[in-house]
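Q: Two folds, back to back.
A: First:
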Amino acid sequence: MFYTIYNILSLFLVVPVFLFNIFRSLKRGWPLVIPERFGFVPKQQLARVAGRPVIWLHAVSVGEIIAARPLLLALRARYPLHALVVTCTTETGKTTAERFAEIDLCLYFPFDFLPSVRAIISAVKPRIIIIMETEIWPNFSREAARRHIPLVLANGRISDRSFKRYLSFSWFFRPSLRCFSAICMQSPTGCTRIVAIGADRAIVHDGGNLKHDIPSHPVGDSERIELRGRYAIPVTSSVWTAGSCREGEEQFLIATYRKLLNEFDNLLLVLVPRHPERCDAIGSLLTQAALPYRLRTSLKENDNLLHNGEVLLVDTVGEMMNLYGLADFAFVGGSLVPIGGHNLLEPASVGVPTVFGPYMANFREIEALILEYGAGIQVQSPDELTTTCQTLITSTELRRVLGQNGLKLLRDNGGATARHMEVIARYI
């Protein structure tokens, strides 16, 4: 009865979803991929995986696909004869995934209309489907189960903020959760929450957080010099990278940067918005603040170096780790405004100290680890951000200690990939 009602209601959403997808694509400058979102995959793309058993992994956007990287590498190493197909929902996620050499084919995830779901599953013919984090779609889940395709939830998480919402709609999620063969959550708390929502306790595992398994290494002086040269940044500059910034945050970062320039004339800001299509609006803010800037896409080989006091505004995706690696210290966005934060382990993985704001609801476990290990500094306000940046600029030793602590955190808390692989191997 649930699926009958769901699909009847879905009929009324086909046109609105179609129009909204066009509007969003035009607004954000994304390509129109209507056929693919409705499950139609070009034959020339499918030819890349023809004749091989397929492992299908779905990751919504940039954060999920980066978190999935250790798992993708492990799958490629253990199953070299299988094809790895990845689906994403966003253009930025797909662009990031396409840079990973281990992936054979990258597609857009279909809308959860029954014909769309059936079309793409029939086209891809997966042996197993792995869903990153908590993407639960009724028709997709049921169709996989109906075809006896193992469905595994990987790196599952339910934030403090979303748990009550999930619980209120447990009647909606329970039928889909019962279609999963295995569910790997990031923590014991996550296990308890997913069971409360309706998952079968017998299939729920504490798999750990795959984000702890991101490759880590301290960026040495020679590598940092090479990276800075690639982005036209002077070797002698003190570089602050503000990554994954969200709307409403940039004005605070710009104001802090202007204050810091009054005291430190060798400072340079690398500003990386979470969504590159917002660069025009951010550029206007920089112009209003009388701060000169250059876009990442405007840099050319052997270009003139940026000057201290300028801003490198990054209008590309897939370069975040390089941009953290060339920095002296970093700020991780989505945390000065109530978004819920982003992955603090990215700068920590290259030995760069991390600054972040109070709004970390989506990354409570990682936030706690960063603070426990002393790998970063949490600020409560834009004013506190300014004073913390001043301290980091002037203290080489503090930056070194924070960076080393971040690398230790990653060494001590790895192993999630192996635990996930142990579960996944049962179904391949």
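A: Second:
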Amino acid sequence: MVDEEIAVVKLHHQYQIMSGTTLKVIGIILMVMDHLHQMFILQGAPNWLNWFGRPVAVIFMFLCAEGFYYTRSKKRYLAQLLIGFLFMSLMNRILSYYLPLEAVALINNIFSALLLAAFYMGMVDLIREGIREKRAKKILLALGGILIPWVIGIATLFVIANVERTGAMLLLFIPNPIFAEGGFVMVLMGLLFYILRKYRLAQAGVIAVIALISGLTAEPGNFQWLMVTAIIPILLYNGNRGRGGKYFFYIFYPAHIYLFYIIAWFLK
């Protein structure tokens, strides 16, 4: 029986052939195809390009959980995501104002969901420390940290509904799970990836369940359930970071979005 279990483990590892860099490259290629559809829909970009983008956020959430676990400085990791979030929040509003495109809502900012997911990962670590050290203060601090983004999100909803729009938009520069790209479900997925990071099949199960719920509740024409395809590269991940490209995503992600948007504006 033991020999059979060892054989299954070896077989499983044999097919884990993708490094973190490989997953990033796959995610970037799929992301570009998705954004070609988003930005050039008026120029006839086919709808099926949108299908390729459904697993992208899931892949990068998975890599975020891995990156947060292995990073030498969790504070610096969070700071980098915060800078990316603030930069894109600002650029989205500048370009939307000066180069308006009625057919394109420039709200892309996956840094918002990645930042919140990583923040909650830190709160989970703090709870674990509090339990291990038997320090109630750490546990209470973590629970407070978990609630704060939700309070900000609810306040943002209230202000947008009751206050002049320009002033209300300022609150969107504070990340919260209600307005994060992909919503709180994507943030929750990233957190579950972190909690279950030693259990790859359980992580795949999380994706499958959320994809199933999405498929059952989505409106016709919404293909978000295709996120289930992210299970394949994630199961093939071998745990190695890979070579190079540490900051490539931070640069490429906003750069290609804004390049496509500006080109689309000229073509309108």
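Q: And?
A: Residues 2-267 form one domain.
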